[in-house]
Amino acid sequence: MSILSFPERGQGGDSTYRGNCSPKVYEWLVQETRARSLLDPVMGGGTSLDVALRLGLKASGSDLSTSPYHQRLKARLERQGARVELGVDATRTDLAALFGQHDLVVAHPAYGTQIVYGSGEGDMSQLGDGDAFLDALQAMTLNMREATTDGGYYVVIIGDTRKQGRYHSYQGPLLGMLPASELRAVRIKAQHNVSSAKQDYGRVRFGLTLHEYVLILQKELPFFQAFGEVVKAQQARLTGTWKAIVRQALTQLGGRADLDTLYDHVFRSAPDRVKQNPNFKAKVRQTLQLLPECQPEERGIWRLAAA
């Protein structure tokens, strides 16, 4: 099924812990991956570990928090046979060295600032919606990947947020930071009984956001080969961005322009890209050569070929 919808929460974890995920999602993941061991590096209320223990899996988990709540949770889970470590920053910790490798490594991290869990360093709920959060999310996921057995699965459950009229989606940027060849599925998880659905926001254009994504990847490449694939994909996207900038600039200039006019238009329309590449004029010339629809009319003058 492509949409996971479990109106009844199921058994396990703490239903009062804000942001917790239905135990039935973890049951489905264990069933689909046929895992024999599970690691959750941001375990929150412990739902994933409760499910793993009930299904007879080796269960390991960690959390950044060392609060009395998590101390009690750690004691309970360890009595049942799990291994739990607290005070662990999943974005900076070698999870494989700490826990060894597991068949299924799954995380439902804090995202956005809708639920702030703490104030310490490494708390992803404090990082907002920008590059700092995405960098931390990538770091956590790559640490998860290294703690996954060869052929095992690493899974991130994450949603979208809307704040001050702006919509933020994290799953797309995250997948762009991971090896594309390892992606096995993206499933939509319907959210039920969330506190935001009970609040009156007035009229929200396009409706409330009541879903999350379940991103399922399977580890199959050595780390440096996988990371090389990511870098290659990012370079291809950057090249594609420059192609779009130059093509659009030439279009807006009427389909024909000399280089100085084109440089000026690119400088004004794409200042962020220009700032990242001080030698942007050479980049514009290189991009013109790469675009088959851009043709030199005479020295220093380019035009878009007729469709």
Could you characterize the architecture of this molecule?
With 307 residues, the protein is of the alpha/beta class. The protein has helices at 23-33, 47-54, 68-79, 95-99, 131-146, 171-176, 223-252, 259-269, 271-276, 280-290; strands at 3-4, 37-40, 58-63, 83-86, 102-107, 148-163, 166-169, 183-190, 211-218, 256-258, 294-298, 301-304. It is built from ten helices and twelve strands. Strands 1, 2, 3, 4, 5, 6, 7, 8 and 9 form a nine-stranded mixed sheet that branches. The chain has a three-stranded antiparallel sheet with strand order 10-12-11. Strand 2, helix 2 and strand 3 form a beta-alpha-beta unit. Helix 1 crosses helix 2 (47-54), helix 7 (223-252) packs across helix 8 (259-269) and helix 7 (223-252) crosses helix 10. The longest helix is centred in the C-terminal third of the chain and has 30 residues, at 223-252. The model has no long low-confidence stretch (mean pLDDT 85). InterPro entries: SAM-dependent_MTases_sf. This is DNA methylase.
